[in-house]
Amino acid sequence: MFKTLVAHSASLIPQGAFGHLGWVRGAVGAALALCLSALLTWFLLGSNSAEMPWLVAPLGASAVLVFAVPASPLAQPWSVIGGNLISAAIGIGLGIYTSSPMFAPGLAVGVAIAVMTFARCLHPPGGACALLCALGAAGSDAWTWYYLWPIAANVLTLSLVGWIYNNLTGHQWPHHLQLPPGPPRSVNANHTRNDIEEVLADWNEVLDVDVDDLDAFYRAVNRHIDRRQDSRS
Length: 233
Known about the structure:
This protein is mainly α and 233 residues long. Helices cover 65% and strands 0% of the residues. The protein has nine helices and no strands. It has helices at residues 2-11, 22-45, 58-68, 77-98, 104-118, 124-138, 148-168, 193-203, 211-232. Helix 3 runs parallel beside helix 7 (148-168). 31% of the residues are buried.
């Protein structure tokens, strides 16, 4: 059992996380983005800075996605901005409407997941935003719609820093597909994009990777196979 847990935990480490000091790049970017988000939000709040939050906790989770796995579909700009702000609005709205700290958070997270899915901006920290805002609006603090302002300032600043920092450090953000030039020669590379989509449909699972990236990855692997076979011939 212990060996199984150790093996499983090792598989949770992102591919290439330690290569090229990727962990340093992600850590520095996240720290910079959060500090700037707090500073700018404090500045924009002005006289209300003593009462309103400078940072909201879900932003930390967004920073992990944006700077540690910027190629993830869950970490793209529309997912970060739309997922957080739509979910925050849902949380505040249901918190005000129900006035129930017991039921508003669950309803808010459920509705937020549905809306984010249909709006194509699924973002895990959005669920935390919905829960936080529902608790704030339904609880004793009685959050109003005005609380969307610091959240929006947080999210937009994080996204701006993510756009600048990721591109400056060699990671295109928004993520753009990098296709290898030309078709691979390997006989194993006879798949199509539809084949990948059909396999994913058979699995009935949502993978945190774009179908086009899977296609490009498979083609790149076959190119490596071609090169290895050429070197042996």
